[in-house]
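Reviewer 2 asked us to include a model.

Predict the structure of this chain.
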Amino acid sequence: MNKVVLFLHGYGANGNDLIGLKDHIDNPNNSILFESPNAPEACPLNYFGYQWFELAERTPEEIYLGLKKSYKYLEKILEDIIKKHNTSYENIVLIGFSQGAMLSAYYGLTSDVKMGGVISLSGALPQDILNEIPVINTKQKFSIFHGKSDSVVPFHRSQELHDFLLLKKIKSNLILEDNCDHGISMQAIEEMKNKVNEWLS
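Predicted model (structure tokens):
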């Protein structure tokens, strides 16, 4: 059965933004397939970019409503990937950056399917949302990365997500990197590579 890594880009970006990360993942015999789709909505702030959901006010209420809507988008993407590549949820690792990380974490917690794993890069769910969501899947595995100098998404959100997961007895690994802004550092890439190889071995 085929193994797949699905990248979810950030707000205002597109599928090309993350697909280059595949070059950092060990892929003997091309046994891992990579997908990096555009989010379904055009982003009003970037002519060439897309959004998983609107971020006009950036309030927990707006984000929660957006996550509920984009959950359905992601569910359809995953169903199409499973059909296209003859695979299963457990053979798919979800890697999200920023807004894509928020959606990845939300899907991983509230879906009744078990992914191969979820990697969250520089994005996490606000505590208000964590307190509200119905956690269905306590068997999901997470790896979380965030730069402590992030000027877009406060790094404490990833710490809160990690603490929340541990409280729910969900496996989670957290890396907080000093002097790293809103991006994907070499340390994050190394952790991503290690987790993909571990989860899809």
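The chain has a mean pLDDT of 94. The first strand starts at residue 3 and ends at 8. We have added this to the supplementary material.
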